[in-house]
Amino acid sequence: MRFGVNYTPSQGWFHHWLDFDLDAVRADLDSIAALGLDHVRVFPLWPYFQPNRTLIRPSAVDQLVQLADAAAERGLDINVDGLQGHLSSFDFLPAWTQTWHRRNIFTDPQVIEGEVAYLRTLAAALADRPNFIGMTIGNEVNQFAAGPHPDPDRITREQAGEWLRRVLAACEEGAPGRTHLHASYDAAWYQDDQPFTPAHSARLGALTAVHSWVFNGTAQRHGRTGTATEHHAAYLVELSKAWADDPHRPVWLQEVGAPAPLVPAEHAAHFTEATVENALDCPGLWGVTWWCSHDVSRDLADFPELEYSLGLLTSDRHPKPAAKALARIVADRRAEPRTPAPRTTALVVDVGDDEAAPHRSVCAPGGAVFEAFARLTADGARPTTVLASRADDREHLAARGITEVVTPSGVAGRFEAGRVGEL
After folding, report:
1. GO molecular-function annotation terms (predicted)?
2. In sequence order, what are the residues at sequence separation of 6 or more whose Cβ sits closer than 8 angstroms to the Cβ of residue 372?
3. 2-335 topology per CATH
4. Cβ of 237: how many Cβ atoms within 10 Å?
């Protein structure tokens, strides 16, 4: 089990790449390592590293390597996101994809050529570092492919899959054998017309990444201490398994945080503890990576209010109550490792078509699958999920340890009417 944090530099946020200060980075990493964490996820800003399609700045790449080496000195592994992309409500796309040079970042051959060269270069620069976990293609790049983005690069599901395979291959070319993956925000699981699908997330790349944010309607509907809220991360981990071809495919809870005001500051430690403990009850969980390490400084303007307070540490590197709660969990799990038992009850997920998932909104807050999962959990079950097309596949169910299958309508009827049967 891995425990880490998404590294947000305390000085200058991700603009720190413009004024890179290795001593400040080292101090940040010291404050992260002091919590007992074992890895960081780091974010080069794409326009800063590749300002022209054929210019990948050597000095920027060298700074990334310096950060990786500083992390290694403190016992921290690193995962590197490449195409940034989108962070904390801001888009960072290079000028050679915008305005007078407007081109689709997922389909234009020259843009893809530039992306491939960039990802391969970053991966290759870190390939010989023992603490390099691997590349994540980018942070929630699926948000560029559909609404509610104000200017999306529209693509089809097939085009999304082609693009993912190509850029993942570029990472493998740069650093063979590392853990390379891609990461979507929850629209991939919840939004009917999102071209990045659950099947993409659960079948492409070395493992499945899920990002859990309860401001998506979960906390608004169920309250800050509701079962669905405190189990939202666990729900996404288990929902992802419905689409996985490998019954033992690992899942990385790559982003999860305590967003104010839905989770007030005085409640953040409790929310952190409940969310992480519930996620740790999911078999096959690769790790938990909290969002984020340090608060955004109030000296920086125009962030959404919640972004200023998501850090485990303040912008002057002091641990907050949530940090102490997470550190306690980490210390406890290191002292006494535990393997969760299989989840034997599976909730049927019917989204119309396994590949396109045209009705995946049933999995979103308020949807039949989402609410049934919350009801099962509140009633003391430890549910997982299974696609409707696999609900009668005894070999698949047995491989996952599933002995009972229920439908959302059956849960609504207190399990009886919709029980498919004990196996």
Report:
1. hydrolase activity
2. 347, 406, 407, 408, 411, 412
3. TIM Barrel (3.20.20)
4. 27
CB neighbourhood size of 353 (10 A):
13
Query: Whole-structure pTM over 0.85, yes or no?
Result: yes
**d(Cα 155, Cα 108) in Å, to the nearest integer?**
11
DSSP string, 60-94: HHHHHHHHHHHHHHTT-EEEEEEE--EETTEE---
| DSSP summary character for residue 195 | S
Instruction: Spell out the domain ranges in the chain.
Output: 2-335, 345-422
pLDDT at site 206: 98
Residues in a beta bridge with 319: 313
Helix, strand counts (H, E) of the chain? 15, 13
pLDDT at 414: 60
Name, in order, each residue with C-beta under 8 angstroms of 106's C-beta and a sequence gap of 6 or more.
Answer: 112, 144, 145, 153, 155, 159, 160, 163
What are the helix (H) ranges across 249-312?
A: 268-279
Looking at residue 417, its pLDDT comes to 46
DSSP sequence for 364-415: STTSHHHHHHHHHHHTT--EEEEEGGGTT-HHHHHHTT--EEE-HHHHHTTT
Instruction: Give the pLDDT confidence of 82-126 residue by residue, as tens digits.
Output: 999 899 999 999 999 999 999 999 999 999 999 999 999 999 999
Alpha carbon of residue 200 to chain centroid: 14
pLDDT tens, 220-248? Answer: 999 999 999 999 999 999 999 999 999 99
Alpha carbon 397 to chain centroid distance? 26
* Measured distance CA(147)–CA(350) in Å, rounded: 24
- Bridging pattern class, strands 285-290 and 2-6: parallel
Packing angle between helix 232-240 and helix 268-279, nearest 10 degrees?
20
Q: In the numeric block, which tokens belong to residue 111?
A: 């843009």
Helix axes 58-73, 22-33, angle to 10 degrees: 30
Beta strands 345-349; 285-290: pairing state: unpaired
